[in-house]
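Field log, afternoon session.

UNIT: design team B
ACTIVITY: writing a sequence onto a fixed backbone
BACKBONE:
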């Protein structure tokens, strides 16, 4: 058997690499986390959209439940095999998980995670992919506001200007959306608010819990899974799932499996990106990956017809995201 010091391990957030000031430059691991998040996020939106729209799966909550179950299963196996640890203080030969006291400490994070997951899954159904990504760009404003309320975080004029350009571009791009739906738009903005609270809570509780990214994911799954299972049962979502005509169709099962795997990787990269960088950087990464989401979404699912205002709005948003990335990387 290989010595424990030579066991394969996965990267986790390391407090020693975290910057004390949000305006400081990224570490190399921070850049890795940002790119990983953007890649997973693009693919997850497309697979969720395929399950909810192309296959007309009736319950976004059940997909969320499947994703949580898969995430906990992956974490359990990886922890038992000692490939990962749940905190930086764990010994290589330790197989313990998380104490009850730590679970209680992270319970606010689990609550915000559940709200974030449910709102995000439902928001994908309500609007087309291009408009979904456009409206989601306004998350950065919610995030900055929540961080200011929670920790008094302030930002430079250059950062505020780049964010204003992102939001302005979003409104320009969405001004010609003929498929406007009040419910769909409302759920997207609710998703933006829950995302902002979730990211700010990660930044605040995650760094004080003693857990790394995997440990936080484990607590979220253990605390949220039973609640969501009970909710889907009383709402009748489980019954609708059992009656779903494509439940055992190979194509749908592949989409569902990939969605669960990508959700696990996405949650990991969100924790890693937010703890290594900041909640606002995490949000800006979401804006940078939008150009790929919009292009692929148009290609596979349709959406907004070609319109010069939409193109200009998307360009403005992308330029704003690029400016923020520049200010972040070079510490402006």
């Amino acid at each position: 058997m290989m010595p424990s010091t030579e066991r394969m391990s996965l990267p986790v957030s390391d407090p020693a690499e975290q910057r004390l000031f949000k305006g400081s430059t990224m570490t190399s691991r921070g850049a890795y986390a940002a790119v990983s998040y953007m890649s997973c996020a693009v693919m997850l939106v497309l697979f969720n959209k395929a399950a909810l729209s192309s296959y007309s799966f009736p319950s976004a909550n059940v997909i969320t439940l499947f994703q949580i179950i898969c995430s906990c299963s992956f974490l359990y196996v990886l922890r038992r095999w000692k490939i990962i640890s749940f905190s930086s203080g764990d010994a290589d030969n330790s197989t313990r998980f998380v104490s009850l006291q730590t679970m209680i400490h992270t319970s606010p994070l689990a609550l915000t995670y559940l709200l974030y997951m449910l709102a995000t899954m439902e928001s994908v159904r309500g609007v087309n992919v291009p408009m979904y990504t456009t409206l989601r760009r306004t998350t950065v404003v919610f995030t900055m506001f929540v961080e200011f309320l929670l920790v008094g975080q302030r930002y430079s004029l250059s950062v505020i200007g780049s964010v204003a350009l992102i939001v302005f571009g979003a409104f320009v791009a969405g001004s010609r959306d003929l498929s406007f739906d009040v419910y769909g738009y409302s759920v997207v903005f609710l998703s933006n608010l829950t995302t902002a609270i979730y990211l700010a809570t990660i930044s605040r509780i995650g760094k004080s819990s003693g857990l790394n990214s995997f440990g936080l994911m484990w607590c979220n799954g253990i605390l949220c899974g039973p609640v969501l299972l009970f909710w889907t049962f009383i709402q009748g979502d489980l019954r609708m799932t059992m009656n779903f005509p494509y439940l055992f169709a190979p194509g749908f099962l592949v989409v569902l499996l990939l969605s669960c795997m990508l959700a696990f990787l996405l949650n990991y990269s969100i924790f890693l990106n937010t703890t290594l960088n900041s909640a606002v950087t995490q949000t800006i990464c979401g804006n940078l990956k939008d150009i790929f989401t919009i292009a692929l979404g148009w290609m596979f699912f349709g959406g907004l017809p070609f319109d010069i205002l939409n193109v200009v709005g998307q360009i403005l948003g992308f330029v704003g995201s690029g400016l923020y990335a520049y200010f972040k990387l070079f510490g402006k």
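LOG NOTE: The radius of gyration is 20 Å.
NEXT ACTIVITY: expression trials, pending approval
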